[in-house]
Specification:
Pfam families: Ni_hydr_CYTB (PF01292). This is Cytochrome b/b6 domain-containing protein. Keywords: Cell membrane, Membrane, Transmembrane, Transmembrane helix. By secondary structure, the protein is mostly helical. It has one domain: Fumarate Reductase Cytochrome B subunit, CATH 1.20.950. It has eight helices and two strands, in the order E-H-H-H-H-H-H-H-E-H. The longest helix is centred in the middle third of the chain and has 34 residues. It starts with a strand and ends in a 13-residue tail after the last helix.
Length: 229
C-alpha cells in the first residue's frame, strides 16, 4: 500500500447500524403499505421503528462521533459551490453536497414518520394522534401521501449518486458496512471514536427512543396504527 494512504475509521458502528436499519424500515414500510390492509400491522411496526431511528440520528448528529455530527458535514453555500467546482479536494466523511442530501433525507423521512402519527384512512387505520384535531389530520394525511412521492424521487437520486461514486472508485457502500475509508494524505487524520463506551451510549439512546415510539401507540381511540408511508 502507498505509504501516504491511510485506512481510518470514519463511520462508527451505531451510525452504520442506523443507516441499514433505516433502509430496512423504509423498504418494509413501503412494501407492506402497498401489499394491502392485511399487512398494516407490519407497516405499523416498520413506521414506529423508523421514527425511533430518526430521533436517534438527530441526537447522534449533535452528540455522536465527529464524522456523524452535523457540524462536520453541513457546510455553507460557498463550500458547496467550491466542492461542485473542485470535487476532488474533499476529505473524510460526507462531502458538502452529500451532507445537505443527508439533511434533506432526514427531514423528509422525519416528516413522513411524524405526519404518520396523525394520518387516517377513515376506515381501518389511523395514527395514534389522529384524534387530536380533525382539520390537521386531513391536512397531514394529504401531505403524508404527497411526501411519499418526494421520498421516492429522493431515494432514487441517492442510490444513483452512490452508484456513480462507486463507479468512480469511491467505495461508499463498503465504508458504510465496515466503517473504514482509505485516504490518500501524508498527514495523519483523526479517526471517528468507535469504542464500546460510544456504542453503549448509542444503545441507551435507541432503547429510550424505541420505548418512546412504542408508548405513542397507547394514545388515540383505537391506539393501533401508525401510517408511515
Amino acid at each position: 500500500m502507498n505509504p501516504t494512504i491511510q485506512r481510518i475509521r470514519v463511520w462508527d458502528l451505531p451510525t452504520r447500524l442506523f443507516h441499514w436499519l433505516l433502509v430496512l424500515c423504509v423498504i418494509g414500510a413501503f412494501v407492506t403499505v402497498k401489499a394491502g390492509v392485511l399487512w398494516m400491522d407490519w407497516h405499523v411496526r416498520f413506521g414506529l421503528a423508523a421514527l425511533a431511528l430518526l430521533a436517534f440520528r438527530i441526537v447522534w448528529g449533535l452528540l455522536g462521533p465527529r464524522y456523524a455530527r452535523f457540524s462536520h458535514f453541513v457546510k455553507g453555500p460557498v463550500a458547496v459551490m467550491r466542492y461542485l467546482h473542485e470535487p476532488q479536494e474533499h476529505g473524510v466523511g460526507h462531502n458538502p453536497l452529500g451532507g445537505w442530501s443527508v439533511v434533506t433525507m432526514l427531514v423528509l423521512l422525519t416528516f413522513q414518520a411524524v405526519s404518520g402519527l396523525f394520518t387516517t384512512d377513515d376506515v381501518l387505520t389511523s395514527g395514534p394522534l389522529a384524534y387530536l384535531n380533525s382539520e390537521w389530520t386531513a391536512t397531514l394525511t394529504n401531505l403524508h401521501k404527497l411526501n411519499e412521492w418526494v421520498l421516492i424521487v429522493m431515494v432514487a437520486v441517492h442510490v444513483a449518486a452512490v452508484l456513480a461514486y462507486q463507479a468512480r472508485g469511491r467505495r461508499l457502500i463498503g465504508a458504510m458496512i465496515h466503517g473504514d475509508a482509505l485516504l490518500d494524505s501524508p498527514a495523519p487524520v483523526r479517526p471517528a471514536a468507535d469504542t464500546w463506551r460510544v456504542r453503549v451510549i448509542a444503545l441507551v439512546l435507541i432503547t429510550l427512543f424505541g420505548l418512546g415510539a412504542a408508548w405513542l401507540t397507547t394514545f388515540g381511540a383505537s391506539g393501533d396504527a401508525l401510517d408511515f408511508m
